[in-house]
Amino acid sequence: MTRYPIPAETVRAELRVKNSRFITTVGHADSVEAARAFIDAIRAEFPDATHHVYAYQIGYGASVTEGLTDDGEPSGTAGRPTLAVLRGADLGDVVLVTTRHFGGTKLGTGGLVRAYSDSAKAALAILPRTERVARRRVRLVVPYSLYERIRQMIADVDGHIEDETFAAEVTLVVSLPVDGLAPFEAEVAAGRMGLDYHS
Questions:
Q1: Could you tell me which residues are beta bridge partners of residue 24?
Q2: Domain 135-198 belongs to what architecture?
């Protein structure tokens, strides 16, 4: 996948169920290490909480690494429902932690499943999304006569110029979306520009 939806920022939602507080925090993590750091930060923020149930999905589509925990809740009542909600959210690179402060009333197996599912859904409902775009860096050596045209071609495929060096010719270091590489290269070839192009 060269493009897929990811969280644009970190958000938090809170539900109360029979005096228990369920505080769900969801955000972006592009690696298992980043997900674990996110989870650790939530644990540190709420050290007196009864449980920190989490689930994450790193990657998207057929290439996903998942993780979850019930964190002391009865097996299958917290982590699995949370992951099930995440799977249905059509997001990649996402981590979700539901922090529970026990209110003194046991919810039972079904009550726990509903509470953790509803908490995850509440946070995901307010989560803004953006798009992860796979990119590749290329280097171009461009004659001054083609400089403006090449800049426009880069912009046309949503590319970004990261560095420019002006000497006898202009050397550009460019970040191009992977799905824009072929159209960009085809236009370079069609124009017989004779550029020094390194991917």
A1: 13, 98
A2: 2-Layer Sandwich (3.30)
